[in-house]
Amino acid sequence: MRIGFLFFIYYGVLIASSKPVVFNALVEPLQKSSVSIEKLSQKTVMEPNKQILINFLNAFERTLILREELYCAKNLEHERLNTYLKELRELLHAKEKIDALYRKSLNKAMAESDKKSFEDLISAPLDPLDHPRIRSEVIAFYQKNYPHHSIKSIEAMCDEQVLEQKSIQIAVEQEQAYEEHLRVVRRSEVSGMKKIAKIGFRNSVILSAESNGIGGFEFEAENLNPYTVTMSIDFESLTNLKASGNLPLFIEVPGRSKKRVLELSRISSALGADYRSSYGWVRGSAFAVHQDLYLYKLPFHQGSNVRVSQGYHGETSHKGLSAYAVDFSVPVGTPIYAAREGIVVGAEGNNNSGGTSPEYRQYANYVIIEHSDGTMGNYYHLKQEGAVAVIGQKVSKGDLIGYSGNTGYSSGPHLHFSVSKVDPISMRRTINLPIKIQTAEGIVILPRKGDRYAVQ
User: Fold this and answer.
1) pLDDT single digits (tens) 225-244
2) What pTM was estimated for this model as a whole?
3) What's the pLDDT tens digit per position in 290-314?
4) How many angstroms from the chain centroid is the CA of residue 25?
5) Looking at 284-414, which runs of residues are DSSP E strands?
6) How many helices (H) and strands (E) does the chain have?
7) 314 and 275, same structural domain?
8) Residue 401: which domain range?
9) Are residues 93 and 237 in the same domain?
10) Which residues on adjacent β-strands are paired with residue 430?
11) Are residues 304 and 450 both part of a single domain?
12) Are 269 and 307 within one domain?
């Protein structure tokens, strides 16, 4: 159902965009995978499924021929276009099956300590290797079974994981959220906490409890921040009490609001009741549903021309949950405009430090905009005093929000732009989302390093 919906979107993109952009954009992800699939078809480990791989490669070759015919045609025939889209849809289904077979074979090789099969599979990477959990399992198996560190591709993965973990640690410390769990306060203590609370700091989200009058307890969450947060509540112990929801409980609390979130009911009136609990929170919503049809504006002045220095699934930092981000190489001081309307929920412009080490992450200047669907637009590495927008400000698409720079974890002057939500699996990290960007050349769905776009 989802794939069919995506192709409905792609059809609209094909009609609205120039042919070079869309024909390449739709095929490129499959083209990248086909190289690995061809390599896998020659490996012993995939021998039982070899015909499935060959069928995919043959079908992909036929689709490429059709793409070239459509590309060269003077008039776009809807019937042939529909055939092209149908073949792409079938290829995506086939690719998903191959990914599942790849994942199963990899798990089997590691479970049986089959180093030959493991090496064959790693030498032809497919999408499952980009999943953080699978990547961690591969690294753990490698470190246990390869003391001499003989596989360069996994060595690179190990280095990336160390860098990513370091970055996550710094980001979590910067957010003052989740890793440091807070105690639940009595309702009478809330007013005192609110007096010392600061936006973004630990105590800017308060969980309080009071007796419900019938032997149990009622919990209320209050979010003092201007942005939505995802909150977790868990109990180290429950004595003669039953929670009204599943534990741990994950909930969304909108900015500057409070809500009743949980109740503990006494099980037996003849016995005493007690609990030990804590909570944490992270900025953003894990429950946001991105409006995939939305067309984002390039965040630069109309008529300007910008180059992508790192696109989706980039070679340096755009990997894993951070894969869907775009870096635009622009000089310091380039005006930055909102790619989508929303409310400014984060702004920092006091820093003047930057460098290629993750330790510099905390010094990034930025503007963050919360969109109507609960996602966040992130504009990073602004110059000192380069955040023009202020927290709480409503901005329209195309409004000036800041000036680019080179602050934070950065290797050179650029704007880092992404749209994110809280990862619904980890519930503590953010995950970037793929988006559609309107350019003068058409709609871009797969920005790549080296691409140049004119701002419409």
Assistant:
1) 999 999 999 998 999 999 99
2) 0.65
3) 999 999 999 999 999 999 999 998 8
4) 20
5) 295-297, 305-310, 325-329, 335-337, 342-348, 354-355, 365-370, 376-387, 394-395, 400-404, 408-409
6) 8, 25
7) no
8) 295-454
9) no
10) 422
11) yes
12) no
